[in-house]
Amino acid sequence: MGTAPRLAEGIELIGEYQGSGFVQAPYIVRRVDGQVIQLPRLLYLLAASLDGERDHEQLATVLSAEIGKIVQAEQVAFLLEKRLQPVGIVADDSVPGQPGAEQGDGKPKMAVKSDPLLALKFRVGVVPERLVWRIAGLFGPMFWPPVILAALAAFVGLDVAIIAQGGLGQIVPSAVALVYQPALTLLVIGLLLVSAAFHECGHVAACRYGGAKPGVMGFGLYLVWPALYSTVTDSYRLSRVGRLRTDLGGVYFNAVFITGMCAAYLDTGAPWLLVAIVALHIETATQFLPMIRLDGYYILSDLIGVPDLFSRMGPVLASIIPGRPTHPRVQELKPWARRTITLWVLIVVPYLGYWLIGFLLVIPKVLPVVWDRLVYLCRAVAAAAVEGHIAESTLGVVQVILLLIPWVGSLLMLGMMVRRPVRWLLTRSPIARTRAGKV
Predict the structure, then answer these.
(1) pLDDT value, residue 408
(2) Which residues make beta-bridge pairs with 230?
(3) Could you count the other beta carbons within 10 Å of the beta carbon of residue 274?
(4) Which residues have a Cβ under 8 Å from the Cβ of 120 and sit 6 or more positions away?
(5) Where are the alpha helices (DSSP H) in 211-270?
(6) For the chain, what percent of residues have pLDDT higher than 70?
(7) Which of 396, 371, 391 lies closest to 381, judged by CA?
(8) 308 in helix, strand or coil?
(9) Distance (Å, whole) CA 390 – CA 248
């Protein structure tokens, strides 16, 4: 059993969180698995003092000198065991009272991981970090200020040119024409997928440009629809400007992609390109919504200087109840940040409640329609395949997948929502208590 605690393997002490909306700015630590952890100054100073050579008495002496108050060895032991070790900052076998790196059942101990609300949890990485780093470097020059100004000017100018040529009046006829051209519909869908991948390249490129290290890229199910993602949690080490650049990198690359499509449309006049341009404009605009974890949510979070706004929702709601004291997690915020987050909560809670209730009310009516449509599409795909119509059959398969994905996502979300209540009930059942008594 070690008496000189040390940091866990791969721990990086980043420093003070820049542009903070807290009264006392937190400090940032990054684990080897990429998890970023916020610590108060006292715990950060303690972590910074862990060199594997100082014992509790020596650590207490160092901390006392740093903060100007007397710290006891027993207090150091408590902070190590109850605060730093559970989140994986301290090596398990260097904390007295911790049985090496194993739990009581002999299984390896796992550091606590965050479980943020409405996060992208059903996902798989596709592009490894090493390749992401190269991609980010390739697109880094896109963030030179002269390039940004030129790209945004071209985006606005070409949009205006399309409108001036009567593009708005061609949107509906162009969309209707795609109904009879499945090959072009597939082309539009493919172009939107490429733009989504390019969007994520914008995030990782901005992350590296600012001085942080992007992680893997991949895809998954966000709530009930498919989504691409990029790992840019290391951007917490950046200043507020650097974090906002990372947040806006995706929509900036959307604007660049739209600019290219606008140039192609003005040159060819292809109606399917106009449909793709309009669809991508809409998708880009929705990214600014701060109600769920889209780009707008992270932009608002970094403007305020408070990571993970959803974690503040419960404390804010508890604090606005008349007669209740202000929650500590609300008190630690600066007054302007507190007011801004309270306003955000008062908007988001009814919004999410509206969509949840609406979803539950619509399910009984929509399920039969979806089933009939699935049966029809499966028959149509089979008939098109038999006749050798590749484009029609492929489009039909895509439509079947798009119909199924929201329901698969809904089932996964439902399972995630009921998992904790069911586990809570099972642990408090008479059978569980009887088994616990026997043990």
Answers:
(1) 67
(2) 217
(3) 22
(4) 220, 221, 222, 227, 229, 293
(5) 240-268
(6) 85
(7) 396
(8) coil
(9) 39
Higher pLDDT: 320 or 409? It is 320
Q: Using alpha carbons only, give the angle 22, 25, 26 rounded to the nearest 5 degrees.
A: 110
**Residue 116, C-beta contacts closer than 8 angstroms, at least 6 positions apart:** 308, 310, 311
User: Cα separation of 397 and 382, whole Å?
Assistant: 10
Contact of 215 with 233, CB cutoff 8 Å? yes
Q: What is the pTM of this model?
A: 0.83
Structure tokens, 401: 């997948």
Q: Angle at which helices 271-286 and 182-210 pack, to 10 degrees?
A: 40
The 10s digit of each residue's pLDDT in 232-266 is 999 999 999 999 999 999 999 999 999 999 999 99
Q: What is the tens place of the pLDDT at every residue in 169-210?
A: 999 888 888 877 877 888 888 899 999 999 999 999 999 999
Domains of the chain, each with CATH number or no CATH? 12-94 (1.10.10), 122-305 (no CATH)
Q: How far apart are the first and last CA of the chain?
A: 27
> Which tokens belong to 336?
């302007």
